[in-house]
Amino acid sequence: MAPPPEVFRWLLDVQSKWPCPDSIKPGRDAAPRWAMEPDTKHALELLPAHEREKVLRFYHIRDAKLSLGSQLLKHYAVARTCNVPWPETIISKDGNHKPCYMLGGPDHKGMEFNISHHGALVALAGCADRNVQVGVDVVQIDPNKDIPKVQREGWPSWVKTYEAVFSDQEVQDMISWKPLEPSGDEDVLKANLRHFYAHWCLKEAYVKMTGEALMAPWLKDMEFRNVQAPRAVTKLSAAEDSGPWGEICRDVEIWRHGVKVVDVQMELQAFRDAYMVGTAVSSLSAPLLPYQVLDLQQDVYSTAEAG
User: Fold this and answer.
1) The model scores a pTM over 0.90
2) Are 124 and 114 in contact (CB under 8 A)?
3) Residues 6 or more apart whose Cβ sits within 8 Å of residue 195
């Protein structure tokens, strides 16, 4: 019997990739001017014309970088997983507009994958078995952005801003949740925000696995219970040192329409201090490989240039 298909997971940090001169300011002409920089030009030349155009539509270079990194990772995933020459790694969309690679027409996906980006990170999770659905979401937690608004509105009101995304019970859980080791008011608020984004990341990963995203009509009828925010890398002991990776949480429960979902794997892992990455997989037997932080030159470019 063949072993179950593995779910591979990658991260690409675009923070220092494709530098942009200070003279290029945000605007409609920013991305086209940035595209003329040698590093950026080289990367864009690896994409088909319609994908290059998509990258260059962005007003801010930080968004264009994330788009460029996302496009490159999709092609890298197909080339490496399906053993397809880079020029033949044509990215399509399935019936739910979810990106995929198809063999032999729209009814034959050559592989399943999903992609997410936030902050400076691009995350991709995929599987060579097209019958295994995969969802991934990465979030960057920026308390400096959220805290002023939370302080003006109050924590309950701020959480309720997102009540269209969460079940009534999830909203109440997030409002009433308290850290185990409370300290000052600001530290408590940071912990609350981390717990909120743990909920957000898990829900995004799950609905992306289904292909319906956050417009799914059943969204409020699906809830996560026993949600724990994984500890950031700086909160781990020396004995738990794992490089930039923090804690992994796997004990979350999924409930839809009052029935517990038992056939989906969920995992939430901290990365560095400010990031969390959520993974959802529609198979209990598919092993989840550890995340690999990719090297743009050694991994992506070398594959593309090999043809």
Assistant:
1) yes
2) yes
3) 174, 177, 179, 227, 229
